Amino acid sequence: MPRRPNISPQTRTVLATLFAQPQAWRHGYDLSKETGLKSGTLYPLLIRLADQGLLETEWRKPLQPGKPPRHAYRLTAQGQALAAEREAETLAPAGLREAEA
């Protein structure tokens, strides 16, 4: 059986946050506030997840004139599947996880 990739606690946090509303487009600033991750941690993580096909990204037009466009993110189907898998692992009792390994 192929080895599953190791996911950092920060990545798990971002996946769980996005998985709470998987179809919603989220801005990096909002994700930073919700997760408590600093921009130097969050944005490289978002770029990596997008490069792996786990996130969709798009530039959103500003809601107010004079504001710059904002980058928005949401989980792809593959990202939702990974987030659901990791959430299930987190919720499973530790003994059950060890028995499956």
Give the key terms.
101 residues, alpha+beta, Arc Repressor Mutant, subunit A, three-stranded antiparallel beta sheet, 5 helices, 3 strands, 53% helix, elongated
Descriptive overview:
By secondary structure, the protein is an alpha+beta fold. The protein has a single domain, classed as Orthogonal Bundle (Arc Repressor Mutant, subunit A). Helices cover 53% and strands 14% of the residues. The chain contains five helices and three strands. It has helices spanning 9-19, 28-35, 39-51, 77-91, 94-100; strands at 26-27, 55-60, 70-75. It has a three-stranded antiparallel β-sheet. Helix 2 packs across helix 3 (39-51). The protein is elongated and about 50 Å long. The N and C termini lie close together (11 Å).
List the helices and strands and how they pair.
Layout: H1 9-19, E1 26-27, H2 28-35, H3 39-51, E2 55-60, E3 70-75, H4 77-91, H5 94-100
Antiparallel strand pairs: 1-3, 2-3
Helix pairs in contact: 1-4, 2-3
